Amino acid sequence: MPINIPKQLPAREILEQEKIFVMDVERAKTQDIRPLNILILNLMPEKEKTEVQLLRLLGNTPLQVNISFLRTATHKSKNVSKSHLTQFYTTFKEVKHRRFDGMIMTGAPVEKMPFEQVNYWEELKEIMEWTKDHVTSVLHICWGAQAALYYHYGIDKFDLTRKCSGVFKHQVTDATVKLVRGFDDYFLAPHSRYTSVEMEEIVANDALLLLSSSEEAGPFLIISKDEKHVMITGHLEYDAMTLAEEYERDLQKGLDIHIPENYFPNDDPTQQPLNKWRSHTHLLFSNWLNYYVYQETPYEWE
């Protein structure tokens, strides 16, 4: 089934070229079904790339999904045009009266800062508090996962000695949980971050369940036992070339950065990297939409 997105959204052309089923509002109104309403809080700097990555995954399930994009009102984005934000994004003030079946909160390039020093942290706290009563399930990615662990469960992040960048092997620790249904015992996933969270704190927290981890990259998939929050510490949504683009960007900035691990063939940045995590990415998003959003959300919100 399709995702319902604005007709003029630039991501639409890319998705249609990839044969992702998309539709506009006019066609969606002719279908007598109850679509899922998903809110995406996009905190990534290159918003249009993130839009494509997430919409590609949300459009690959049997469910019709209505998408709304949310931006922070207390932070001005530098890497996307004001017209794009005005046309396709809304602010929390404009949607806080609504209820959503699911929400995705992306990562953000602010992980080296204490949470309280992020200029939109107070706004983000208000949004995370609002999700408790207005969203059925929330999927948090990378820094978004760390922010959720900190705000909801009191688990703080810590600085790594060097950036965790690369594609790492992860082990499923509890295959009975619906979120990882169909997963291999081991799977690959990309990471790109300067901070992490202590695995011991997650395991010791009675409200959380650790679903997968990596010897090199640490805890990866975490879910709250009430199934309200899903935290992904890496970037399953990344394209094959995303880590390469970030590596080149960091080199141009003159940063002391290492080659992403287990990523380029023969650790040679001149060779084309392969996407070795695509199938599990689609499976995870499909499981989340089905088991934690569609199966749990009320047909009519009271």
UniProtKB/TrEMBL annotation:
One GO MF term: homoserine O-succinyltransferase activity
Cited function: Transfers an acetyl group from acetyl-CoA to L-homoserine, forming acetyl-L-homoserine.
Important for acyl-CoA specificity (site feature) positions: E111
Protein name: Homoserine O-acetyltransferase
Enzyme class: transferase
Signal peptide: none
Gene: metAA
The keyword Transferase belongs to this UniProt entry's keyword annotation: yes
List of residues binding substrate: K163, S192, R249
Origin species: Bacillus chungangensis
